[in-house]
Amino acid sequence: MAAIYDRVALIGLGLIASSMAHAMRAEGLAGEIVGTARSAETRETVSEMGFCDRVTDTAAEAVEGADLVVLAIPVGAMNPVAREIGPHLKPGATVTDVGSVKRAVIDAVAPHLPEGVHFIPGHPLAGTEHSGPKSGFAELFENRFTILVPQEDVPEAEVGKLTRFWQGMGANVELMDVEHHDLVLAVTSHTPHLIAYTMVGVADDLRRVTDSEVIKYSAAGFRDFTRIAASDPTMWRDVFLNNKEATLEILGRFTEELFALQRAIRTGNGELLFDYFTRTRAIRRGIVEAGQDTDAPNFGRGGSKS
Ligand code: NAP
Fold first, then answer.
1. What's the pLDDT band for 204 if we cut at 50, 70, 90?
2. Ligand 1: which of 85, 100, 101, 137 to mutate, most ligand atoms within 8 Å of CB?
3. Is 6:31 a contact under the CB 8 Å cutoff?
């Protein structure tokens, strides 16, 4: 495929940015990939790994002359980084990000972008519990959705270009309104993570009492929670601090449902529990049918205790 952007600057070189670099390379989507990260250690690792054509010491240097700038850093870091790069952006460049929340990123970044720069916030719905430059792989975005939230005044042609870029990396692209994005993600990603963190925390408290039985007899349900709860602490702290309203709204609903189920257990209302679990099972079937997960037992991981 012909390059879609002549020069792409990746700010932050962790899981998402390194996966993008591998995918861009595999598909020839960028003429040149320039990268930078906060620490000298990450910059050195990436120089050795070679998935960027150039690694610069600062974000300001990285964005010089770039046609596409991707902010692939924790949500809480967006504001200072946008302030740093603002004066160095090329007129006509597109700035995007991959942050897991969108309203807070727009508020943090938009004020620092000069006129003539196109701001198209984005969010690839793809990830793993691993982080850092060594965790990336070219197939991460394949058949996953990337949501774009174009800002006012961005020409359609620029949105189309970024759409083709993500499609080139294997993603299905959807445009969405910012508030809708933050609410949908609070339901599908943010609140489930908080619940997983809580469940693993509760089990950890118990472990102190039962002396490692929680790990020894760790059943599939709990192990799935521990995978999610192993996700990057900085990233997830920033998600909750920056998608406060939507997460609290969904948590409120979650608590109400939990109380209803708790009451059904107390009163022996098997019918309610059965109907509830039948409904949720159908949701899982829908996700598998939409090609968003595997139908293999235990996610294809082989034998399990459950
Ligand atoms: P990651 O693997 O932890 O990498 C984060 C990168 O950002 C690192 O290169 C890090 O530099 C740099 N960074 C951290 N703090 C910084 C700061 N204060 N200033 C400048 N740079 C800083 O993270 P990731 O998983 O790629 O996530 C990046 C973004 O993608 C986040 O906004 C996250 O919400 C979003 N996202 C993540 C997932 C997922 O599942 N992981 C999925 C979709 C979207 P050093 O290495 O030098 O510390």
1. confident
2. 100
3. yes
